[in-house]
Amino acid sequence: MNLKMIGLLSLQIVFLNFACFASNTNFVSNEEKKVNTLNSVLMCPVCPGESIDQSQNEIATNMRKIVKGFVEEGKSEEEIKDYFVDKYGPVILLEPATSGISMYAWIVPPIALGFAVLVVVFAVSLMRRRQKSAAENHTYGLTEDSISEEEKEKYFSVIDRISNE
Amino acid sequence: MVELGQIALILSFMIATYSTVVGFAGGMLNGRDLAASARWGFYSICPLLLLATASLIYAFVTNDFSVIYVAENSNLAMPKAYAWVAFYSGNAGSLLYISVAFSIMAGIAIRVVNKKLPYTSPYALGVMSLVLLFFLAVILFLANPLDRHQMPLEDGQGMNPLLIHFGMFIHPPFQMLGLISVALPFSIAIGALLAGRGGRDEWVDQGRLWGMLSWLLLTTGLLLGAWWAYTILGWGGYWAWDPVENSALMPWLGMTAFVHSIMVQKRRGMFRMWNMVLIIVSFAMAQMGMFINRGGPVPSVHSFAESTMGWIFLAVMAVTLFISLSIFIYRYDTLRSRSGLDSMISRESAFLAQNVLFLLIAFVTLWGTIFPIFSEAVDDTTMTIGQPFFNKVNGPLMILLVLLMGIGPVLPWRKAGWGSINKMLRVPLIVAFVVLLSSLISGINQYWVLIAFSVCSVSVTTVLQEMISGTKARHAHGEKWAFAFFSLLGANRPRYGGYIVHLSIVMLAIGITASSFYDVQKDVVMKPGDSEVLGKYTFTYIEVSEKSFPDRLEETAKFEVWSGDKYIGYMYPYRAVYPEFQIAATRGAIHSTVLEDFYLVPSEFMEDGEAVFRVLINPLVLWMWASGPVLVLGTLVSLSPNSRKHRKRVRLPSMNMDQNPLEMAK
Fold first, then answer.
1. Residue A63's domain spans which residues?
2. Chain A contact for B413 (CB, 8 A cutoff)
3. N- or C-end of chain A: fewer Cβ atoms within 10 A?
4. Is residue B658 part of a domain?
5. B341, B352 Cβ separation under 8 angstroms
6. Is A132 within 8 Å of B472 when comparing Cβ atoms?
7. CB contact (8 A) between residue B342 and residue A131
8. Is B432 exposed, middle or buried (0-12, 13-18, 19+ CB in 10 A)?
9. For A109-139, how does the pLDDT look when each residue is reduced to its tens digit (9 = 90+)?
10. Domain range spanning residue B364?
11. Which one is predicted more confidently, A155 or B10?
């Protein structure tokens, strides 16, 4: 128990240390944060796939300036995005919109998740059933009930221990 | 010299054809001599390809611009050491690199496999030869790096300046090695399938060994790539969900699932079909990566500028997938599991859930990556999907994975009783709660970060708990503490090696979480002499020095930096402009500490002496890079063979109980 307590405490200290950086958020103004967020969702039109935040291209540099100017004028995020969408089309947004064709980008992952869950449930129940029928077919003189659950667990834990070593 | 290389290429192409045909024939006719002949043929390809490589590198070193590839990828100004980088920096050369690297790895693999897997080996050899044959065919008929111009040139075009970086010596070779090495476990698995019953469980140990090596190469490649992006691409990030990054990540996800689920087959004789499917899918994803990399339709910074090559890779991927799955269906009956599932809650089912999660993340990544093609086809607009989408969708799934990583290993095989679960998870859950509270108190208010940290702490605690209780048990038997600890690790290396890898993944996860949620970024305009403050850092822009080179103009800024009252010293971020390429390469100056990186990078030097700098504070990034060595160590521990002397032999022989003895005798 002693060891566990020490481990517990040291882990906590480590995590508390990690947490120091949480104060970082106050270093920059909200305006600057807004600029950064916008920069990272706008695509640089000539460097495919890269955000203007990331790109070293001149166009990206200019777009960053435009974004900064707009934010300083007090325009909202949506207004600024709309400005670029009007100019370049919805292609300019790196985060797919929730309407139109881009909607499918968002719809497919949850469907896939649902499908994955179904697959797991199906596979597990299939394997369960197979195990049960196998147990019925090969009893080797032992019936299912001849050994209690607790005993079984003990037995398997011994096997586990041996085979883990 | 170049002609010699050409001859070597043609010869190796012919030998690979021979090895493929004779290898498969050896397997089917059960001819030992045939198989041996194919094998020795395969061994001889490696020196031939090395010769071809040497001739290409020689052409680079001697500036032989009559060779088209050399002219396109180097010039007189290039430092000679970069001949190695130039060798694989273009499309044709990288194919040669992949071939030569694969011939070496596959040669070693087949040597080992031949000793251990009598039934599988000839077929596996056939598949490996086929893979190599494909690359050699592409080189010879489509993209030969040794082809010459009619008219020799004075000077070459030079290498892409972004590649002039130390990281380029290691990141691309590792990444390509990783992608192609997926073919090794794939060949062994397909070989085992073709061998039928004889190969059924026989391939597991070897599949795991080469699967893990491949995984290690892929991981190293990804980490090195992230590190390279962080230090040179000058935007302060390390991962952008760029299509090529994604296509390297997908096979990694597949292989990670594979190296886990193969353990279930090793230990329990289950998941036989699943492992086959996983390795087939992983190899398909690796091929997909090469497709996207070689001028696929998806825009990316990484692409080699080629247009048709990619489609050949895609077609071959489709064919590979079709044939492998056909073989799979044909041999379906040999893949029945030895036993079923005893309980819904067991290590087996945790493995299954984990596998499916990995594939799900791979699928989402694939979906986001090919979405531009989809939207193009449906709506005529190429919608590129970027970082925000992947972060939002994959982030939570990855946290779930880390949680499973904490719980899975402490669940017993077969069946977990609630009692044992309670016993194993009590302390981790308490720790997670304490971490949650202490994070809250210290001011973390982003709920994803809170969740991620708590989940990470579960993983760390379960691993530590296992290590501590094991060590204590050995100590109780009279072993000294340190000795007890190391002998514990030594006793079950796959397991404790895996734990070490898990710890490194937690380090990675913490680094990624902290640096993506709590990074601070600011663009500042400064004149020499100006001082600015960001957080506890005070930095003064002293001067800029310009240096002109034949191919580039380098501007290096000099900063004096203080962290609080502590003097850090000078930092020199620089930016180089390559007029010919219209590319600017920036290199950030980074001051790293355990807690955070202070990162300075110039974005623009203006005429009037003002300059724009991007200043970042990225928390815990060092942990990400530190996770690399830990991960390698863990993998190596996990792979190192147990010494027989110290082991009780309790495992059943790798041949199966339900193997037909008559068939074995054949």
1. 28-95
2. yes
3. N
4. no
5. no
6. no
7. yes
8. buried
9. 999 999 999 988 888 888 888 777 776 665 4
10. 165-405
11. B10
